[in-house]
Design a protein that fits this description.
Strand order of the largest sheet: 1-4
Number of helices: 22
Shape: globular
Structural class: mainly alpha
Strand content: under 5%
Helix content: 55-70%
Largest sheet: 2 strands, antiparallel
Order of helices and strands: HHHHEHHHHEEHHHHHHHEHHHHHHH
Length: about 475
């Protein structure tokens, strides 16, 4: 292991790499439960099926980036991209679960081609810097908004669209049964923040587990809380594998090409073609920028950058990401990307791909713990969504908010994602705003050819699909 991963050469030890891999797993293991819970809202697929799909894709992606790129990073279904898959592509656009998987598969194939041919760098340069920097923040707000909704804290309101849920248990507008899960969510968020501040490793996972324990303990105070609870329990881990095989694995091939339901809803083939192109592009762009940002940030934190300030083995890391996304689509989950939580393992001393192998092995073991994970309530995982949203806001400090030509596109990118419930709309508004501001301020020559192409595609999406 030392010879293959060059552990000593990188200034590390096998013990340190193992501890770093464990730390990374603890920091990002929440994705197994959060992703499964999010996808279980879709018709035809269960929590168990997506739990296994998420674990398998995480194993593949994490081991690949360790073996190919020798980097101490981990991959799994990306937060934000899974929300885009479920709430925008499926619920918003009206595509089926299998249809959306097909778009993820296209994303993975495109990503592989772009990485192998070197076109990835040209597309990366086509997105204005201020828009690219703002994307993670917009996704963070979107994720946090979903978490607040899942927790029942933010609810629909006819006059203002959204509002704070009533917590008044004294006048009869709210009950303890409805308020208790909300308090668990808020308490879990605070607990995660406190543990993170104190440097506790795996604070997000511990916050989820603690929230789950609090939820079931407080359930004693709710009448009828445990009625039928024992009857619904199943501790056979292979039940999840059976669901995975029948509901998720290979669905992209058996049902992904069938768009009859979408066309039956009154949409034209032209709308479908534009939707496939623009949504696949959105998947690819978000995946690309999220991965690039995470690779650079994690490596910079661990002093792993090359002498000229670049990520070592960048192309191999991106190829691992692309292959994992393709495999994830076949398994039945959304885009696989490098996790920012990998920084926790790097901070613990991880310097080589050996720590990634350890993380991948732990994800493999976790596949057989799905019955335990299924006990985690939504109010606990909602806390993780909210806190991950907090983590993704860091990038806004790099935006020049005093210059309108950069501030407006960046703000639209950030604001439009949660307000329209759509990540691609945020990117579209940011790119289009950049183009128009440049045009009317005499800076048309600064608009790159690739930016024009992307902007035109987004404009077509608006005018054809709405």
């Amino acid at each position: 292991m030392e010879n293959f991963f060059k552990v000593k050469e990188k200034g590390s030890t096998v013990r340190t790499e193992v501890l770093a891999g464990l730390t990374t797993f603890m920091a990002m293991a929440y994705i197994l439960m959060v992703n499964a819970g999010m996808f279980s809202d879709l018709e035809g697929v269960s929590y168990n099926a997506i739990y296994i799909a998420t674990a398998i894709s995480a194993v593949i992606g994490t081991i690949l980036i360790g073996v190919l790129a020798n980097l101490p990073l981990a991959q799994a279904s990306g937060m934000g991209l899974n929300a885009f898959f479920v709430y925008t592509v499926c619920f918003g656009f009206g595509l089926s679960y299998a249809n959306a998987l097909l778009l993820v598969l296209v994303d993975g194939i495109i990503f592989i081609i772009l990485t192998v041919t070197g076109l990835r760098e040209k597309i990366f340069e086509a997105i204005p810097d201020h828009v690219r920097v703002a994307i993670p923040a917009g996704i963070g707000l979107f994720i946090a908004f979903i978490g607040l909704q899942n927790a029942g804290i933010v609810v629909n309101n006819q006059s203002t669209c959204v509002s704070l849920v009533s917590l008044n248990v004294f006048s009869g507008t709210a009950t303890w049964a409805s308020v208790m899960p909300i308090l668990v969510t808020l308490g879990s968020v605070i607990a995660i923040a406190v543990m993170s501040k104190k440097g506790v490793k795996g604070s997000v996972l511990l916050g989820i587990v603690g929230g789950a324990v609090a939820y079931y303990v407080l359930g004693i105070t709710v009448s009828g809380f445990y009625d039928g609870f024992a009857a619904s329990l199943s501790f056979n881990p292979f039940t999840a594998f059976a669901d995975f095989g029948s509901q998720a694995f290979g669905k992209v091939f058996t049902a992904g090409f069938d768009f009859s339901d979408y066309l039956a809803a009154g949409h034209t083939t032209t709308e479908l073609a534009v939707l496939i192109i623009t949504t696949s592009l959105a998947f690819c762009l978000v995946d690309m920028f999220d991965t690039l940002g995470t690779l650079y940030g994690a490596c910079a934190r661990g002093d792993l950058l090359t002498k000229d300030g670049k990520v070592p083995n960048m192309d191999k890391a991106m190829l691992a990401d692309a292959i994992a996304t393709t495999c994830g689509a076949v398994c039945g989950t959304s885009t696989v990307t490098t996790f920012v939580e990998s920084s926790a393992g790097v901070a613990e001393g991880g310097r080589t791909g050996l720590s990634s192998i350890v993380t991948g092995a732990l994800f493999f073991i976790a596949m057989f713990l799905s019955p335990v994970a299924a006990l985690i309530p939504g109010c606990a995982t909602a806390a993780a969504l909210i806190y991950v949203g907090v983590l993704m806001m860091n990038c806004v400090r790099n935006i020049d908010w005093l210059n309108a030509d950069t501030a407006v596109p960046a703000f639209l990118t950030v604001a439009m994602m949660p307000m329209t419930y759509n990540i691609s709309y945020g990117i579209a508004f940011g790119v289009l705003a950049h183009i128009f501001i440049c045009l009317f301020t005499g800076k048309a020559k600064e608009i790159k050819a690739g930016t024009w192409v992307i902007g035109i595609l987004f404009a077509i999406m608006f005018f054809v699909t709405h």
